[in-house]
């Protein structure tokens, strides 16, 4: 983590990504600014995905949608360039991961539509301010994320399981976290599950499908939030001929403040 980016602005983090100075995960960076997931699809797949987001607002809360061929997230980060301003991307062909570049300029096409989707990193500043620990930030690793057996509502060609992120908390901390996160519905809102991971189809909590494992202490239980990596699971199932997403945990930093999403 770049120490100078912890108290930076969203614009500062984007500039660091654009210059190639930051290519790692973004938890704990630009405290107080809204982090976002990214999905980029050809125009002829965009309506189905828009409908998928509307039917599944918990894992896919939309913040911004671009015009076809426009790489600027005008509503959330004027002046940004979605081709260069994230630390790392994933490029997909027919549902298969084919590259993880730090710049997607060479992949850009005039028919691509970009979707900027809320992220749970957004409410972590509020959690820490209230004394609720965020273990992956404490341990300087990426947040653990898991596929579940909870199905999303299908839309057109898109369907698949909900993906969740996990933060270990004591029962008292879980209550406080629920109260705090409920204020941020466009950053996934309140947790969707806590306790037994097998109840939502997670076989081994020590082996996340995305991100890194974190320590769960004796007095803690795993607490799960809907996650914006859910579209990547849907992409693997729908197999569009071409798509680009963020690399899990490597988010797009917007100019919105976390307070801008409170209560929406």
What would your notes on this structure say?
This protein has 264 residues and is an alpha+beta fold. It has helices at 10-18, 43-55, 124-129, 135-138, 171-181, 230-238, 258-261; strands at 33-42, 62-65, 89-93, 96-99, 112-118, 145-151, 161-169, 193-194, 221-226, 243-246, 252-257. The protein starts with 9 loop residues before the first helix and ends with a helix. The model has no long low-confidence stretch (mean pLDDT 95).
The count of β-strands is: 11
Number of helices, counting only DSSP H or I runs of 4 residues or more: 7
Structural class, judged by helices and strands? alpha+beta
The N- and C-terminal alpha carbons lie at a distance of 30 Å
Radius of gyration (Å) = 17 Å
Query: What is the helix fraction of residues, given as a range?
Result: 10-25%
Largest sheet: 7 strands, antiparallel
Query: Kindly state the mean pLDDT as a whole number?
Result: 95
* H and E order: HEHEEEEHHEEHEEHEEH
Low-confidence stretches: none
Overall geometry comes to globular
- Estimate the strand proportion: 15-25%
């Amino acid at each position: 983590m770049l120490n100078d980016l912890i108290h930076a602005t969203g614009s500062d983090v984007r500039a660091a990504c654009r210059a190639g100075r930051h290519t790692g995960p973004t938890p704990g960076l630009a405290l107080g600014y809204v982090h976002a997931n990214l999905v980029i699809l050809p125009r002829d797949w965009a309506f189905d995905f828009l409908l998928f987001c509307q039917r599944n607002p918990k894992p896919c809360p939309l913040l911004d949608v671009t015009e076809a061929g426009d790489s600027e997230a005008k509503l959330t980060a004027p002046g940004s360039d979605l081709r260069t301003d994230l630390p790392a991307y994933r490029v997909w062909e027919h549902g298969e991961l084919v590259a993880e570049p730090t710049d997607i300029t060479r992949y850009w096409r005039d028919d691509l539509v970009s979707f900027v989707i809320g992220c749970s990193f957004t409410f972590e500043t509020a959690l820490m301010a209230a004394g609720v620990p965020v273990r992956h930030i404490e341990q300087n690793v990426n947040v653990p994320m898991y596929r579940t057996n909870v199905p999303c509502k299908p839309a057109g060609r898109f369907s698949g399981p909900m993906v969740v992120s996990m933060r270990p908390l004591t029962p008292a901390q879980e209550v406080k976290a629920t109260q705090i996160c409920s204020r941020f519905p466009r950053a996934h809102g309140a947790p969707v599950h806590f306790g037994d991971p097998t109840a939502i189809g997670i076989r081994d909590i020590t082996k996340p499908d995305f991100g890194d494992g974190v320590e769960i202490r004796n007095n803690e239980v795993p607490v799960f939030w809907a996650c914006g990596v859910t579209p990547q699971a849907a992409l693997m199932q729908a197999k569009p001929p071409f798509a680009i997403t963020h690399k899990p945990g490597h988010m797009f930093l917007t100019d919105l403040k976390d307070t801008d999403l409170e209560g929406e």
